[in-house]
Structures are given as C-alpha cells and as structure tokens.
Amino acid sequence: MAGVKSIRCGIDTVQLARIERLLNETPPADRARIFSAAELIEAGQATSAVPSLAARYAAKEACLKLLPRETALGEIGPYDFSICRNGYGEPAVTPSPAAQAILDRYRLAPIAISLTHDCSAASAVAITSPRETPLTPLDRIAYHLFPVRRGVVLANLRRAFGGKVSEAEIERLARASYGHLARSLGELLRTRFMSAEQRRRLVRVENIESPLRAWEKGRGMLFLTGHFGNWELTLPAAIAAFPQFHGRFHIIRKRLPLGLDALVSRRFAGAGINVIPSRGGLQTIPELLARGDGVVFVFDQNASARDGIMVDFFGEPASTFRSLATIALGTGAPVAPGFCYRDVDGAHVLCFEEPLETIDTGDFDADLLANTRAYNAVLERIIYRHPEQWFWMHRRWKGDPRAKN
What we know:
Blueprint: H1 2-5, E1 8-15, H2 16-25, H3 28-31, H4 37-44, H5 49-65, H6 68-72, E2 81-85, E3 91-95, H7 97-105, E4 112-117, E5 121-128, H8 137-145, H9 150-161, H10 167-191, H11 196-201, E6 203-206, H12 209-215, E7 221-225, H13 231-239, E8 249-253, H14 260-270, E9 273-277, H15 285-290, E10 294-298, E11 308-313, E12 316-321, H16 323-331, E13 335-342, E14 348-352, H17 364-385
Parallel strand pairs: 6-14, 7-10, 7-13, 8-9, 8-10
Antiparallel strand pairs: 1-5, 2-3, 4-5, 11-12, 13-14
Helix pairs in contact: 2-5, 4-5, 8-10, 9-10, 13-14, 16-17
C-alpha cells in the first residue's frame, strides 16, 4: 500500500462552453499564453477545435494539481504543460523547463495523461509517481568499500531532497553517487590507453550552436559548470573535436589529488585547453575575454572569505564565488551554462544551454548577489536532473567563512 499512497493523481473537468467563450473573447496572441503552437495546430486539424482544446485545458489543470505548492506560489501555470499526441497517436505531456525542474526536484516520473469529452464537457486524469534510482552491483560495492565522507554525502543529499523524497531514495542516490565516482575513475584510467579518436567517439556535444551565437559577438564567453558527470574525460574529448577552439578554451580549477592532476592536465593540454589556477589566475581573464576566448568556471565549490559571498544553494546559505558575476558585470561577456553527464546508453554528453541574461541595474552589490543566486539556481536545476552524477562529497555548506575570521 505504501507504493499506492505515493502515486500523485490530478483530475479536472471543464465545460466546453467555457473554452468556446475563451476562444471567442481572447485575441490570438493571448491564446499563446495558454496553449502552445503545437496544441493550436493539432486542435485546428480536428472537426471542432473547442472539444480538443477543452480536453487539453482540463489536462493542464490536472497536471497542475500534481504540484499544488508550486501552482499556488505561481511558479507554474497552464502553459507549462503542452498536451499533444506522440508518435503512437496517444496524448502525451511535454513539461516546460520550469515544470520539468519541479518534477526533477521531487524525483517524479513522466506524467501519464488520459483525456475524454462529450457534447458538454471535457475531463482529464494526470498521474505520476516517484522515480526509484536504479542500482548496479558497482554502486552497492563502492558505497560499502569506500565510505569516504559518507556522512557528508548523506547530509548534503538531505539538504537537497529532504521532505521531497523518501529516506530510502536518498540512500539509493548516495549509493549511486559512489558507483558513479568509481565508474568515472575506471574510465579515466582505461581511456588513458585509448587514442584521441577513440575517446572522441565516447562523447557527443549537444546545443553548442547556442553559445556560439553569443560568442560571435566578440566579447568572449564565460561558461558556468560544476562537477557533473565525468567532466575530466568529457570536456577535453569534446573540445578536441573542434580545432577552431584549440588554445582558446581556459578552465579555472583546483589541483586534483592522488596523482590524477598530471593525467587530467595532459588531457586538457592535448585538447588545447589551458588550465588557469584558481589562486592568482583571475586577473588574466579580462584579457582572455578581450581577445575572444572562452573561460570555464567550475562554480560548485565552497569559496573562502576573500572570494565568496553568502548565497542560497538548495535553500541554505553557502559561500559562493563572486568572481563569475564580477567579471560578467565588468566585461559584458555572456555566461552560458554547460555540463557533462553520462547518458543511459553509456555515452558521455557535453550539453550547453542558452546564455543567461546578466542582471545589471547599476547597483553593483545587488547585481552581484542576484546574478550569483541565478548561477546557483542553474546548478540546482542541473543537479536535480542527474543527482547521482554530482560530487556530493564536497563540504559545500561550511557556513559564513567571514564569521570565523
């Protein structure tokens, strides 16, 4: 019965006359705030658009009832769920990025939908349930054999998922994260004996066109990322496939332990990626941007009192690097999120997102805080998408370092 109770179900009914009035009284431009272009096209192909759109509107409302808190807070609305037919002709739900981020936050499965209508009303049922992280033998073995910072990992997972998922799921995520680290280490050692071409075949790049359009404006490019996936393998293998970037990518990072630093640095150098030390290297960045280069900021670690400001991360203040927002405000260089993850087919993916709009009101302190919080929000969303592939061992929440000095 526990599994049954965990299922979320939303039901809604709407009168056809209500939707007919809405269509008659709403200008076409305003309809786009309720229905997606694909929904309007599909409805236009039906005998009557009214029943088709009424069923879709009921489905949207049913989806919103699955997430009552976020709906009440105005974080999502009807437009955040597009109801269209899939390749099999069945109605399917496509969440907006905002809605998908909330589903990921609660570890919820894709929404299943059922629609019906008669001559006077349309109804819909939406159902979802918690996802359960699958575990491999390696996940279980690594969790027990290498209990490094296990308490930190579990505490950090509870910060992010406490009250959203079960304690059993938090422990599954912890096990999967240890398995991910063991898998990544094995990949780094194994691929050491592969050719550059073999390593490139392990990696694919998604949506690089988006940051390239911003990069072409000539202000350089700032990339926001964190310790996602096997980024020490993925980044150099992916960038090596673009010879026009050779020597024009720079990454700011700390040294790695256990002799891994030399191995990773050689990989980076071979791909034409220059390493900027996190200490003393920031003053070179404006010059690099001025000549049109790209600089990668690994943004998810705890910052010192000198380098950081306190900004919420998963709802709790964390000392966060001020440098990225400072440079973005000072140079006008665009900031684009980019992250790595291991896909279900075993491939390593380097995925880029649309550049963020820098908040610049003229109040530097307020803008610094707002932009840095926006960067943390991006990291949260990406972590929720692939939580087992983030570095939960890091002591990200150490409190305000200025209070200790």
